[in-house]
Amino acid sequence: MRIGKNTLIKSISFRENECQALGEYLEEKALQGWLLDEIIFGFFIFKKAEPRKYKFAVDIFTDVKVDRFTDSRTIEYREFCEASGWNYVCETNKYLIFATEDENIVPIQTDEEIILKKVSKSMILNIFSYMILASSVIYNIYNGFFNRDLVNIEEVYGNYYIFLLTSFCITLIGPIIDIVRSSLWYFKYKKALKLGEDIKYPTLKEFKIRMAYYDIIMYMLVILIISLILDLSDSQAIIYIGLITFAIIIPICKIIKIIRN
Questions:
Q1: For residue 166, how far is the Cα from the chain centroid?
Q2: Exposed (0-12), middle (13-18) or buried (19+): which is 184, by Cβ within 10 Å?
């Protein structure tokens, strides 16, 4: 979302094994003249700048306490990276982001085993959280739409029932995809590590496709919130369904374009 001439805000959700892809995405944005400034609640804020070739590093720092901004270990780690030639950009949760214009700089992390250990540890926790979230959504969908002993939602909401069911199903697909993708990658990485093979991380193209899909969820949530605020009537349901359909078509066209390129 463009805010004026000099600010671009983008909601970006990324996983532990997508740090490399995220770095490549930030490099691509820098070449387009948008330099990452800060991250607030998952929203990446880019500022207009001269197009330049930067190298970004997105590093997982698991030794972070509750207040990561004043934690001595975080500060020391940042100072160590900056002394190595990496310029600190910003951070979010357990991720620290650095950038440099030096193409020949030594990577922050050079030990693949340490990287994979941090990635896998964090990923296992998230897989379980996705499973809990998906189970909760499925349980609520069942009780709300299919358990006739509790409520007949079709009689209560009429056509709005279709809109609600569509919204919940789209929301559910996200956690399920994350569970499958993360689990498959985790087992592939374990197998490759055991056989001494190279570890393949998600590519920039795969990362962009997943971002486009999550745009669908974001659009859907905005439309759902608007519908709850303005009107829950049966007559407005068709309009909301049409808006969601339109919101789905745009990211799908974007995904097709990404695949073709």
A1: 22
A2: exposed
Residues 178 and 182: their CA atoms lie apart, in Å, by 6
Identify the residue whose tokens are 């007559």: 235
What is the per-residue pLDDT for 73?
76
Angle between helices 112-141 and 160-195 (to 10 degrees): 150
- Provide, for the chain, the percentages of residues in helix, strand and coil under a 3-state DSSP scheme, each rounded to the nearest 5: 60, 15, 25
Beta bridge pairs of residue 8? 2, 46
Question: Which of helix, strand or coil describes residue 51?
Answer: coil
* Alpha-carbon gap, residue 163 to 144, rounded angstroms: 13
Q: Is 97 helix (H, G, I), strand (E, B) or coil?
A: strand
Taking 50 as the threshold, does the pLDDT of residue 194 lie above it?
yes
Q: Measure CA 229 to chain center.
A: 27
Q: Residues with Cβ < 8 Å from 138, sequence gap 6 or more?
A: 172
Write out the two tokens for 103. 């193409």
DSSP assignment of 121-176, as one string?
HHHHHHHHHHHHHHHHHHHHHIIIII-TTT--HHHHHTTHHHHHHHHHHHHHHHHH
What is the share, in percent, of the chain residues with pLDDT greater than 90? 18
CA dihedral 184, 140, 229, 173 (to 10 degrees): 20
> What average pLDDT does the segment 44-58 reach?
93
Per-residue model confidence (pLDDT) at position 89: 93
Which of 193-199's residues contact partners 24+ apart within 8 Å by CB, and which partners?
Answer: 193/116, 199/112, 199/116
Higher-pLDDT residue of 162 and 151 is 162
d(CA 89, CA 28) in angstroms, rounded, equals 16
Please determine, for residue 66, whether its predicted confidence score (pLDDT) is greater than 50. Answer: no
